TrEMBL record:
It holds the Pfam family 4HBT. PANTHER family: ACYL-COENZYME A THIOESTERASE 13, THIOESTERASE SUPERFAMILY MEMBER-RELATED. This is Thioesterase domain-containing protein. It comes from Polypedilum vanderplanki. The keyword Hydrolase applies. InterPro entries: ACOT13, HotDog_dom_sf, PAAI_dom, Thioestr_dom. GO terms for molecular function: fatty acyl-CoA hydrolase activity. Belongs to the thioesterase PaaI family. Residues 54-130 form the Thioesterase domain. Keywords: Hydrolase. The lineage of its organism: Eukaryota, Metazoa, Ecdysozoa, Arthropoda, Hexapoda. The keyword Cytoplasm does not apply.
């Protein structure tokens, strides 16, 4: 898949996220700014629905972002019969907090995709100062059932 087609796929995913009634709607404010060839870059301005009771970026939302955006990056990879797969392992390291109205930058990358497993990584950064907020690693089973 060309980078242009990959980014078109991400734009279509944005439309889905805005219109779905499933859990994915928590990402309805996500804006893809680049992607293709196994990568995805998105932005999100933090609103009250993204925060925990202490007013910081919710860890569960961070997990959802890593899980979802790495999957979307994988979907842009030019691999025949690629499936979005199911998560086998999701690991996050929380390095710094973010608060309401902070803009975050999400960068996801496909490290390797084999016959049965895909290995993905993600960084969530504060757009203002580029500080690393969350580092994520995601492994997905993508083989045949």
């Amino acid at each position: 898949m060309s980078a242009k087609k990959g980014f078109e796929l991400l734009k279509n995913i944005s439309v889905y996220l805005k219109n779905t009634e499933t859990y994915d709607r928590v990402l309805s404010s996500l804006k893809f700014i680049d992607g293709g060839d196994g990568k995805a870059t998105a932005e999100l301005t933090l609103k009250p629905e993204h925060l925990n009771k202490m007013g910081g970026l919710h860890g569960g939302l961070s997990s959802t972002i890593v899980d979802s955006v790495t999957t979307f990056a994988l979907m842009t990879k030019d691999i025949e019969n690629i499936r979005s797969g199911v998560s086998v392992d999701l690991h996050l390291t929380f390095l710094k907090g973010a608060k309401e109205n902070d803009e975050i930058l999400i960068q996801a990358n496909t490290i390797r995709c084999g016959r049965t497993l895909a290995f993905l990584e993600c960084e969530i950064r504060n757009k203002k100062d580029n500080s690393l907020l969350v580092k994520g690693a995601h492994t997905k089973f993508v083989g045949q059932n």
